[in-house]
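Anyone opening a protein record will find just a pair of labelled lines. The record below illustrates this layout.
***
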Amino acid sequence: MTAPSSLILASASPRRRQLLALGGWSFAVLAADVDEMPHPDEPPGDYVLRLAAEKARAVAAGSPQAWGVVAADTTVVDGGQILGKPANAAEAEAMLRQLRGRTHQVLTGIAVLRLADGLLKTELAATDVPMRAYSDGEMHAYIASGDPFDKAGGYAIQHPEFRPVDALSGCYANVVGLPLCHLTRLLTGLGLPPRADVPAACQPALEYDCPVFSRILEGTL
């Protein structure tokens, strides 16, 4: 199925697939099917790390020829409240109204499971996200596009028309769904460095001049 040096991405997200490709790793996609309900009183950081690990383990059994499995889970957190994917237009509108004109946080848990020895390593990325004061008309047009329904918090930061976020000062890729420099640090430490210059590839792809990539790669952020 895959070459021995390749990764399995345990996600069907096209955004994660596009981001992982920027590192030059060879990989295949095998989506994980896990229960994404939070446990009672589970802290948001613990929640995304647990789901990332569960996704990695769920996919590992079907990937014996791969070097390892990469999994991620992203959620929007507002005042300690986890905002998942809206089930319908009413939920999407409620989330977007709640977030409008305020700063919330996006958390992504990433997990890498090295198949040769079963070693599992995780990382947690956090980005503060200031939302702009978009109008009701902009919000309703965005909901009508159908884009919010597979997005935590009901929005995509990279949507070309809606553009819901004011000036960002953290990891943009984390908000998209895969904090690539955190993953690069994790994979490099496990013996599988990228085949490309990740910051040089990521910034033009996301059209974002990242102020934090060097600190993330150095392990100081």
Remarks:
- The chain has eight helices and six strands.
